[in-house]
Structures are given as structure tokens and as C-alpha cells.
Amino acid sequence: MGNRGMEDLIPLINKLQDAFSSIGQSCNLDLPQIAVVGGQSAGKSSVLENFVGRDFLPRGSGIVTRRPLILQLVNSNVEYAEFLHCKGRKFVDFDEVRLEIEAETDRITGSNKGISPVPINLRVYSPHVLNLTLIDLPGMTKVAVGDQPQDIEHQIRDMLLQFITKESCLILAVTPANTDLANSDALKISKEVDPQGLRTIGVITKLDLMDEGTDARDILENKLLPLRRGYIGVVNRSQKDIDGKKDIRAALAAERKFFLSHPGYRHIAERMGTPHLQKSLNQQLTNHIRDTLPGLRSKLQSQLLSLEKEVEEFKNFRPDDPTRKTKALLQMVQQFGVDFEKCIEGSGDQVDTSNLSGGAKINRIFHERFPFELVKMEFDEKELRKEISYAIKNIHGVRTGLFTPDLAFEAIVKKQIIKLKEPCVKCIDLVIQELINTVRQCTNKVLQTLTHKPDAHGCSVLLLIDIELSYINTNHEDFIGFVIRRGWLTINISIMKGGSKDYWFVLTAESLSWYKDEEEKEKKYMLPLDNLKLRDVEKGFMSSKHGFGIFNTEQRNVYKDLRQIELACDTQDDVDSWKASFLRAGVYPEKDQPDNEDTITPGDTVSMDPQLERQVETIRNLVDSYIGIVNKSIRDLMPKTIMHLMINSAKDFIHSELLAYLYSAGDQGSLMEESAEQAQRRDEMLRMYHALKEALVIIGDISATTVSTPVPPPVDDAWLAKEPSSGSADDPDHGKLDEYCPPSRAPRKRSLTTS
């Protein structure tokens, strides 16, 4: 083949194949290989066994090959076999090889004749083989047998297509001579994926079983049913020979004699037979590898670059260094601290553009999830008013209560504040879970550090709720309190009774008072709110102000001898604002009722006493106001407290205490002992890394002057019928043969470039 580099190409591909398989990855380099396809009993297994010179493949009826078998043949002075899944074990008895293939097949597929695309890797070393890599695939079938699924034909077809559709795969299409070659399943499926015939090699088996007086001379001479790469004929052992344990070497000698003595084949005998097929495949695979080298080199370099970072920590690994465990522990803790802080603070070197994590997710919990949990807290309005009513009654006891009691408000507020614990606990749990996820992203070796006294942290954070319960601050500047509103209003009275006058009004939860001025020193009148209602009044003819009326539902005088007083404002907006204030005090328009009245039935225990009803509404509004203040405070302080007590303390622990904690936890030797899985991963990663580097070196050593063998020119492949289209049977083109492709001039010989 020209130089040592070319001879090493197939072993190189084998090494890459093993390197990828050993770490559980699919070989995404699409390494050049030869896939063997054909129908059941076409003789595929016999061809492979003839290559090796040993009986080692399972045999029987139905589908025998149920998983792809990647067979790597390596020329060697000694003879033995190795399986990738049985590392270190050498098989010298090839009967044991067969049993291992059967056992490994059943391990994945079971014993019910099912199939699986997971390959079995077998390497055979022998002085009787040439370097060659083939993939033995299940034989195509049309009928399910035994427990096989009814769609077994489609399953096998899909499996074959997974391999042979790759441009890097040569197709060895095996067809028995005693069947109609034009209907060969192997050639049909090859034509689908390789319409130009650039990758298809024909193999004709069972030439000795043709009817007497017939031969396949025109086929083997590539005249009758031509392929670009032509056909090679072989004669395998018969079933009787196999059952009688006929030696394969004797069978190869008989094959040689058959071609030399047959009148139809003796002139092409040197181009027929298993040895020639093996040599031809070796050359074609080597040429194919060489032709794909530029693309393969590029992919190898990409793979090497992607592995560089992963193996960086392994390349200088010294297992015999006595200080390596201490160094590793120190570096691990330091790196963990840096990674954790970057994840929390958002200064990571690599930014995730697909998902939120770390500090970003905690921020979302603080400012989106936690406020939402507070807002969505639901309560039964009817039940709440009932509780307020009971509280008022219980505080008054046997006495008749004229005023709304403060204690009822405080009791209800505390009960509502206690309900805030649930969303706070949920917030704490969400933050802890996200911190755990962050630690897992940084490392899986010091997860215990995060859970350092989590209960204590949670109790400290919930101390905020206990603080709110300890003192109800009704002097808060945002609390509406029992004084609901202050402001100027005009009382419209007829001139006969003194005329309209402006006063300073103070609306509380119990009464409406008005004063001479804003200093509230000279009170003019105090009107209790019991049994009061509001109504709209028409704008006066001579007045530019807007007003509303207040009256007593029991037909009592409201002010002096007036059954109704009219209050006026400068704008309608001011009127609406004052009406809203009266609503908070429990004074409603004459036609309106509290929102919950329609839900109260005569059987309810809440009293329909108007005074109690107004007091319930007053406390209900006060509770809303105060809980709003508490919610605002908790929304602000909860993230700050969690940040201080949990997140910052976790960072401080990692930076200042974690190393000492780990040293005091036990024997550092055993703590840092490398697991068998990690050691295996390191070895396999380094093996693949060095295999990639070696592959690039070998590719670089290949002589740039090596001349490649040109691909044969196109041939007339019209005999291969097209697959039926989706059109109807009446389609005039339905079933026509392919258009004839006239032979073109053979391409010029090209030199391999290594750029």
C-alpha cells in the first residue's frame, strides 16, 4: 500500500472504535467501516467465518444475528479473540466465542428472538487474516417468528439504515446465486442509500448450488447486472459440511479448486474466492479510509479540542505522590468556594442561556415567587366576618358595646399574621433547595456543607413572624387606624337656619365630628355612625360645589332638627373619595350593602344587628390595612434575612470553616480515596485522548504522494427496479426501471492531501 502509515489505517480505526465504545459514547465520527447486509441464509456468517478460518458465529433457524457484530480482524502472529465487554479476557477456544456472543445477545434482547441496535464488539487476532473491520447485521426477513414483534421486518430495516446511510460506510451486499439477483433485498436497500453505487460491493454466494448447466458468469464478469465495484463470488461450506465440522481451511482449498476447475469461472478464478474477497475488502476499506482522511482529520481535531479541558486535571496526575490527596482536598475546597460564589453572585465564566440557576433563581424566588405566595393566600370572607363578630361579642360580654373594641381588631390581626408563616416556610425551602442545586453544580463532594444547621436558619428567619406578633403597631404611618380621614367639607344649610359653612371634618371608625378649624380645639358636633347611610343629592342651583347626603335609617334627626345633612366638595372626585372613606367606616349608600350580605342566610350565626354589622365592617377594613403593612414589611425583610442568615453564612462557612470541618471529620486518606469508577473514567478518558492524538500523528505521517485508486465508472444499473412510489398503480411510470446511466470517463488519479 505504499508505506507503514497506510497499513496502520484500519488498526487506527479499530482503536478509535474501541475508545468511543469504552466510554459509552456512540462513535459520532462516523468512522469508515464495512457493513454486511443480506437476506436470511444468504451466507453472510459463512463468509465472515471463512475470513477468520474458524467457526465462531451462532447458527440456527430464523434470525440468528440479532445485534450488530462489529468484527475487527487484526493480522497477528498469535490467534485469539477479545470482546470489548470482557476486557482483559482472551478467548482461544472459538466455541467459547460463539457462546459469549449468544449470551451477550440474550443479555440485551432476551431469548425471544427480539433484536437490538446495541452492537457487540469482537476483535480477532490471527496470522490468517488481513486487517479488516466489518459489521455483521441481522438478515432481512419478512415474516415474524415465535415471539418476535409483527413489525420485525421494519425494525431490521431501520437498524440496517442506521449503519449504511452513513457516507463513511461501505456496503457488502451478499446475495445467493440460486435466487433471482434482480430481486435481491441486499442490492435493493443498498440502491436506496447509495444510488450512484459508489459504496456498494457485490458478493455472490452458493455458486455450487446453481442448477446443473447454469452459471453466474455474466454476473461475476459484471455484464448482466453490473455494479460499479463489481462482484466477487465465493463458495461456502454446505450445511452438511458445517454439521460434519469440516475444516474451514479444507473448505477454502475446495473453493479454490471449484473456481479453477469450473469451465465458466476458471478464466476469472484469480478474482474469485474468499482470500481474494478479503484482500479486496482490505484494499477498498484502506482506500476508503484514505479518501475520507481530510474530513476525519478535522473531526478528530475537534474531538481532541473538546477533550483537552476534561483531561487537563488528569494529564499531570501522579498516583504515587504522597501529598496528592492533601493538595487535591485543598484545591477542591478552594475551587468549590470560587464556583459557589460565582453561581450565587452571577459572575460565572460560563453563562447558562437556557435556564435560570443559582443566584438568578434565588432572586426570582425573592421577588416573584414569595410575593405571589403572599398574594395568593386565600381566606373565606364569610368566615372572617363571622370570626370578627364573635370577637366583638366575646369582648363586650354582657355589656352593650357602643364602640368598636380594639382587642377584637388585635385578635383578628394576629390570626392573619400567623398565616404568613406558611409562605415564609415555603420560601425558605425553595431557597435551600436552590442552594443544594447550586452546590451540586459546583461539586458533588461537599454537599454536606450546605445543610449545616438548616433548622436553625429556618427558625431564625421565622423569628420575623414572631416579632410581628409581639406588638401590633397601630401608630404606623401607613395604617388607616380608627381615624379614617380628615379634611374640609361644606355643610349646606338654608339661610333661615344659618346658611352654608365650611368645617374641618374628622371621620373615625365610630363617628363623624367637625371642628372650627384644623387645630381641632373647638368641636362643633359629633355624629355617631350607627344607622347612617349615604345618598346622592342634586347640585344646588346657585352652587358650584358637588355634594352628598347623610341620613339616619331610623328616621331620627341627624343634626339639630335636620333629618339629613348635605356635605359639599369642590369636585366630584373629592365627593367620590369621601364616599370611599365612609365605606371603610361601614357607612354605605342607601341602596348598597356589604359584598358578603347576599351570602349570609337566616341560619347563619352572625347577628344582623346594624351596629354590630358596621363594627364588623370597620374591623374588617382595619385588618386589611394592617395586614397590608405586615405583608410589605415581610416582603422586604424576608429576602434580607435569608440572604444574611443562610446564603452569606454558607459562603462564609465554605471560605473559612469547610476545610477545617473536613479535616476534623475523619481520615483524610479515606475521605479523598479515589473511587474505582473515577479511576476507570480517568483511564478511559486518557486512553481516548491519546488514541485521538496518535490517530492525528499517523494521519500526518501518511505520504502525500500516495496515489489513490479511482472509483470505477458508472455502469448500467437499470436492472435495479425503483422502489414503488406513493402514486397509484395506474401511474404510467409505476414500476419502470431506472434510467440508463452511460459510462463516464474514469476520474483522474488524485494524490492525497494532508492539509
UniProtKB/TrEMBL annotation:
<dbReference type="InterPro" id="IPR000375">
    <property type="entry name" value="Dynamin_stalk"/>
</dbReference>
<keyword id="KW-0493">Microtubule</keyword>
<keyword id="KW-0505">Motor protein</keyword>
<dbReference type="GO" id="GO:0098793">
    <property type="term" value="C:presynapse"/>
</dbReference>
<dbReference type="GO" id="GO:0005737">
    <property type="term" value="C:cytoplasm"/>
</dbReference>
<dbReference type="GO" id="GO:0008017">
    <property type="term" value="F:microtubule binding"/>
</dbReference>
<dbReference type="InterPro" id="IPR003130">
    <property type="entry name" value="GED"/>
</dbReference>
<comment type="similarity">
    <text>Belongs to the TRAFAC class dynamin-like GTPase superfamily. Dynamin/Fzo/YdjA family.</text>
</comment>
<feature type="domain" description="GED">
    <location>
        <begin position="616"/>
        <end position="707"/>
    </location>
</feature>
<dbReference type="GO" id="GO:0016185">
    <property type="term" value="P:synaptic vesicle budding from presynaptic endocytic zone membrane"/>
</dbReference>
<keyword id="KW-0342">GTP-binding</keyword>
<dbReference type="InterPro" id="IPR045063">
    <property type="entry name" value="Dynamin_N"/>
</dbReference>
<keyword id="KW-0963">Cytoplasm</keyword>
<feature type="domain" description="PH">
    <location>
        <begin position="482"/>
        <end position="587"/>
    </location>
</feature>
<dbReference type="InterPro" id="IPR022812">
    <property type="entry name" value="Dynamin"/>
</dbReference>
<keyword id="KW-0254">Endocytosis</keyword>
<feature type="domain" description="Dynamin-type G">
    <location>
        <begin position="28"/>
        <end position="294"/>
    </location>
</feature>
<dbReference type="InterPro" id="IPR001849">
    <property type="entry name" value="PH_domain"/>
</dbReference>
<dbReference type="Pfam" id="PF00169">
    <property type="entry name" value="PH"/>
</dbReference>
<keyword id="KW-0547">Nucleotide-binding</keyword>
<feature type="region of interest" description="Disordered">
    <location>
        <begin position="709"/>
        <end position="755"/>
    </location>
</feature>
<protein>
    <recommendedName>
        <fullName>Interferon-induced GTP-binding protein Mx</fullName>
        <ecNumber>3.6.5.5</ecNumber>
    </recommendedName>
</protein>
<dbReference type="InterPro" id="IPR019762">
    <property type="entry name" value="Dynamin_GTPase_CS"/>
</dbReference>
<dbReference type="GO" id="GO:0005874">
    <property type="term" value="C:microtubule"/>
</dbReference>
<dbReference type="GO" id="GO:0005886">
    <property type="term" value="C:plasma membrane"/>
</dbReference>
<dbReference type="InterPro" id="IPR011993">
    <property type="entry name" value="PH-like_dom_sf"/>
</dbReference>
<dbReference type="Pfam" id="PF00350">
    <property type="entry name" value="Dynamin_N"/>
</dbReference>
<dbReference type="GO" id="GO:0031623">
    <property type="term" value="P:receptor internalization"/>
</dbReference>
<keyword id="KW-0378">Hydrolase</keyword>
<dbReference type="InterPro" id="IPR001401">
    <property type="entry name" value="Dynamin_GTPase"/>
</dbReference>
<dbReference type="GO" id="GO:0005525">
    <property type="term" value="F:GTP binding"/>
</dbReference>
<feature type="compositionally biased region" description="Basic residues">
    <location>
        <begin position="746"/>
        <end position="755"/>
    </location>
</feature>
<dbReference type="InterPro" id="IPR030381">
    <property type="entry name" value="G_DYNAMIN_dom"/>
</dbReference>
<dbReference type="GO" id="GO:0003924">
    <property type="term" value="F:GTPase activity"/>
</dbReference>
<dbReference type="Pfam" id="PF02212">
    <property type="entry name" value="GED"/>
</dbReference>
<dbReference type="InterPro" id="IPR027417">
    <property type="entry name" value="P-loop_NTPase"/>
</dbReference>
<dbReference type="Pfam" id="PF01031">
    <property type="entry name" value="Dynamin_M"/>
</dbReference>
<dbReference type="InterPro" id="IPR020850">
    <property type="entry name" value="GED_dom"/>
</dbReference>
